[in-house]
Amino acid sequence: MLGICRGRRKFLAASLTVLFVPAITWIYLFAGSFEDGKPVSLSPLESQPHSPRYTASSQRERESLEVRMREVEEENRVLRKQLSLAQSRSPAHHRGNHSKTYSMEEGTGDSESLRAGIVAGNSSECGQQPAVEKCETIHVAIVCAGYNASRDVVTLVKSVLFHRRNPLHFHLIADAIAKQILATLFQTWMVPAVRIDFYDADELKSEVSWIPNKHYSGIYGLMKLVLTKTLPSNLERVIVLDTDITFATDIAELWAVFHKFKGQQVLGLVENQSDWYLGNLWKNHRPWPALGRGYNTGVILLLLDKLRKMKWEQMWRLTAERELMSMLSTSLADQDIFNAVIKQNPFLVYQLPCFWNVQLSDHTRSEQCYRDVSDLKVIHWNSPKKLRVKNKHVEFFRNLYLTFLEYDGNLLRRELFGCPSEADVNSENLQKQLSELDEDDLCYEFRRERFTVHRTHLYFLHYEYEPASDNTDVTLVAQLSMDRLQMLEAICKHWEGPISLALYLSDAEAQQFLRYAQGSEVLMSRHNVGYHIVYKEGQFYPVNLLRNVAMKHISTPYMFLSDIDFLPMYGLYEYLRKSVIQLDLANTKKALIVPAFETLRYRLSFPKSKAELLSMLDMGTLFTFRYHVWTKGHAPTNFAKWRTATTPYRVEWEADFEPYVVVRKDCPEYDRRFVGFGWNKVAHIMELDAQEYEFTVLPNAYMIHMPHAPSFDITKFRSNKQYRICLKTLKEEFQQDMSRHYGFAALKYLTAENNS
Fold it and tell me: Segment Disordered: which positions (predicted)?
């Protein structure tokens, strides 16, 4: 404590020096500019040689004074620089001696101007109590609905997690879509000291549906009004954020501002940085009533306990009803109603410094809010144009946003040292499973991959599909990585039905995919394709995990288990729906086999019928799949019989059989122990056989494998002996597990393997 006070005395001395040295200097200069009791002008007009007062001595004196002025100005510049450095070091020194204090920016509680937010002085006294306890939980509320908002909010969360040093509790007011996406994302993200609670936005619609709203956010843009009623009654304060926010500092600094609220101040808001509420943007522009420029509600500090005591619900409802009689609808959703309430009750507001909500809207004045980009705390992309908005510093803002957009979210799984985390059953089970593995095992990395939890973002793009009412609908299921992206358009042209895809991408690659998809007319015209991002982690391609993710998120009763390198024949979707009825797949355990062929040509005139395919097969343009490399994989399909077959026929399972099949959605998952190349499909077909599925070949169906460069995993398999040894070990363990699970009937798999 003594060290802090000494530091502050030095700080005060430096401040006084900067203030008094210029004053003394100018007194000296002012006194020195008198000659015979009369002022000597420094005007260049009066210092010409023809002036009667011009003398050699006065010229020398003037030059001496000017030199002295420059010296004093340079000394002042150095002192100001030292003072600035002392200011920047002071909070860090304070944190070092008081571990419970994070940081606290001084704001303004008045309504002077946007520039008031630039100055952030430290006016605390020696021995000030910490503003934010080290392990104090910070509560954040966000309204999030739909596919796009669920994607946008991830960037906001990343920016908060990147800077944070406190436990966080996110309160997400979400519709069914956002809840499904974000619940899976956070469950698989497994970030320590982060808690998520969901509140059903659809149940809140009736609370605000009576308010006409023209804003693009729709009905969900009004739901911040009912947070006092929605959030837990014991929650006293919360930071409310829009999904298009990016943090450039620790959110604890904003949380600390709650301690500055006085009297009846219950809302912390930044002044609106456009002329919207002044009503002069265009002719007949008539905004809702507001105090001056009004306030922006992209960032709100809510004192919930006091708001409830003030009967906030009644307050905003009465105001909205009154204003709607003349305004008819809101233009800026909840922001209009917040401002109308504040207009009548200005004492409710604590005005935050404008750097807590730098608004990049179409008519923004945000450039007056900061002198330097380092002053910024929060950036708000509150224009429908988002990253395309015009601002002289937009490149800096865009780069900051893109940094978090493409930042590896796995790196944010860091512990908060000294802050105990709540017990997480999933995390504890994972640690237990990993602890049981032998790290000295040469196949340790293979075994570990089975338990790796990959961060997963479901429905990365808009998805809209209702299965056919006749219960015959079939979804094509596949998985891919970035190097197979070019297959998507072709598959969509060949298969008009629903598709479920799991994509194994990094955060940066996910954004590349997004730009690729948004630039494709073919992909953007299809709303029945579910894109599920599984984020990269570890050294293996988790092929069976990807398949399981894609399988799990289908909405049809049947699925076609394919691979991304295959193009289905034209019309296969409708043919499979008819086959489902014909073969009574709903009431029997069947796996319908779609025969697989391949071409070695990158440019192929795709056969439009079975007859055309057989002709190409005879000419050597097409081949049965992998006949020259892995004959056993598809030999049981019996291609010789298929050539002349006109009705479905049954085939028996054989060792290493791995056909592409149509099954009910309740079929078993793929075994996750198989990663990269080798045995990933073989094991699944073996389990279908163990569960007594009947394999039936469809006589008029086919699919063609398109050529591509060898994958990284097959290269490792071919070049790495240890890789092959581990795969063999995993195969044996899988067969033993099958014998234990399915008993005597599973012994044939061991026998078949030994004979093959």
Answer: 42-65, 83-109
Rounded distance between C-alpha atoms, residue 51 and residue 63, angstroms: 17
Three-state DSSP class for residue 200: strand
pLDDT in tens, 88-112: 444 433 333 333 443 344 444 544 4
Residue-wise DSSP of 711-737: PHHHHHHHH-HHHHHHHHHHHHHHHHH
Residue 5 exposed, middle or buried by CB count within 10 Å (0-12, 13-18, 19+): exposed
Q: State the Cα–Cα distance between residues 529 and 553, nearest whole angstrom.
A: 11
Q: What is the pLDDT of residues 337-367, one digit of tens each?
A: 999 999 999 999 999 998 999 888 666 676 7
Strand partners, 477: 500, 561
- Token digits of residue 555: 């909405």
Residue type at 313? E
User: And the tokens for 197?
Assistant: 């609670």
C-alpha to C-alpha distances, 364 to 152, 281, 358, nearest whole angstrom:
22, 12, 9
Whether 438 shows a pLDDT value over 90: the answer reads no
Architecture label for domain 138-406: Alpha-Beta Complex (3.90)
Q: 39 in helix, strand or coil?
A: strand
Q: Which long-range contacts (CB under 8 A, 24 or more apart) does 745-754 make?
A: 745/690, 746/690, 749/655, 749/686, 749/690, 752/654, 752/655, 753/655
CB contact at 8 A, 670 and 623? no
The span from the CA of 528 to the CA of 464, in Å, is 6
Average pLDDT rounded to a whole number, residues 641-650: 96
* Structure-derived torsion over alpha carbons of residues 180, 181, 182, 186, reported in degrees to the nearest 10: 100
Burial of 666 from C-beta contacts in 10 A (0-12 / 13-18 / 19+): exposed
The span from the CA of 420 to the CA of 402, in Å, is: 32
Tokens, residue 598: 């391949």
* Phi (first) and psi of residue 384, to 5 degrees: -55, -20
3-state class (DSSP) for residue 609: coil
Q: What is the Cα–Cα distance from 408 to 183, expressed in whole angstroms?
A: 19
Three-class HEC string of 436-502: CCCCCCCCHHHHHHCCCCCCEECCCCCCCCCCCCCCCCEEEEEEEEHHHCCHHHHHHHHCCCCEEEE
- DSSP per-residue codes, 74-119: HHHHHHHHHHHHHHHHHHHHHHHH-TT---------S-S-GGGGT-
Q: Which DSSP symbol is given to 364? A: B
Superfamily holding 456-749: Spore Coat Polysaccharide Biosynthesis Protein SpsA; Chain A (3.90.550.10)
3-state secondary structure 398-447: HHHHHHHHCCCHHHHCCCCCCCCCCCCHHHHHHHHHHHCCCCCCCCHHHH
Pairing verdict, β 558-561 and 649-651: unpaired
**Single-letter amino acid code for the residue at 291:** L
Mean pLDDT computed over every residue of the chain: 82
pLDDT exceeds cutoff 90 at 496: yes
CA pair distance 458, 455, nearest whole angstrom: 10
Cα atoms found within 13 Å of the Cα of residue 719, Cβ hemisphere only: 7
Q: What is the pTM of this model?
A: 0.80
Q: How far apart are CA 237 and CA 255, in angstroms?
A: 9
For residue 447, give both structure tokens: 């075994």
Please name which of 150, 149, 142 lies closest in space to residue 185, comparing C-alpha atoms.
150
Asked whether the CA dihedral 74, 77, 82, 83 is positive or negative, the reply is: positive
Nearest to 161 by CA among 455, 587, 528, 572: 455
Residues of the chain with CATH 3.90.550.10: 138-406, 456-749
Residues present in the chain in total: 756
Task: Encode pLDDT of 508-552 as tens digits.
Answer: 999 999 999 999 999 999 999 999 999 999 888 999 999 999 999
Contact between residue 213 and residue 273 where contact means Cβ atoms under 8 Å apart: no
